[in-house]
Amino acid sequence: MADGGAPIRVYIAEDEEPARRTARLLVEADGDLHLVGEGYGEQALQQVSESRPDLLLLDVRMPGIDGFQFLRALPPDSLPHVIFVTAFDEYAVEAFHVRALDYLLKPFTDQRFREAIRRAKAQIRRGEPQARVQLPPVLGTGEHGGVEVRGRRLVLEEGGRTLLVSMEEIDWIEASGTYATLHGDGGSHVVRITMSELEKRLLGRGFCRIHRSSIVRLGAIREIRPLSHGDAQVVLTTGTKLRVTRSRREELAQALG
Predict the structure, then answer these.
(1) What pLDDT, in 10s, does the model give residues 143-174?
(2) Could you tell me if 245 and 151 lie in one domain?
(3) How far apart are CA 143 and CA 90, in angstroms?
(4) Which residues contact 173 (CB under 8 A, 6 or more apart)?
(5) pTM for the whole thing?
(6) Residue ranges making up the domain that contains 248
């Protein structure tokens, strides 16, 4: 951990080059910071594990492994301080569950970035606690994740543990590689199952796949807005906004009747 006048060591975990470049320039312009690396995916995970930075600028949505899975995979005794940097505001609650120092929404201004860094410096210098992962455990075992459909409930199995989740409690489902996160009134549940398999199990039960990475419960939709190039956007009753790809618009329209 940085102390006294030692530079605060920073790693940028981000898959988009323009965003990575912006963060890099801002970090390098600050004399109190030292950039130890940048990247995304498994390579970034290995680099962070080896370099053990004081501060991690972490994107939420990255290919292969998302920001929360990234933190899960790090040794719990060497988690860095974290500032989330993302274009999606629906992860704010989860971000603060891991004691994130801040949550920067893209596009952010230089001033907003410096503000977040200023707070990070103060907490790191004071030796305050670093990130602590307090996310829902990954549920499901076996080839298809131990996820069963019984009536209007999803049954999630993990060893001797059984969790019953009513379908009405689920607003939407997000894909992340071979995992899926159920978002809804009952909080978030991470299950080890592919979206294709989950889509099959929810067929005809009031859900519709609207994107390769999103399934939505039809009853949670409040509004549908047209976007460019034939895409659309659904707004859920919670205010969450999700993209509908052009190839899925007709399927959604048919599902809604």
Answers:
(1) 445 678 888 888 876 556 678 889 999 999 98
(2) yes
(3) 30
(4) 180, 181, 182, 183, 195, 198, 207, 214, 215, 216
(5) 0.53
(6) 138-256
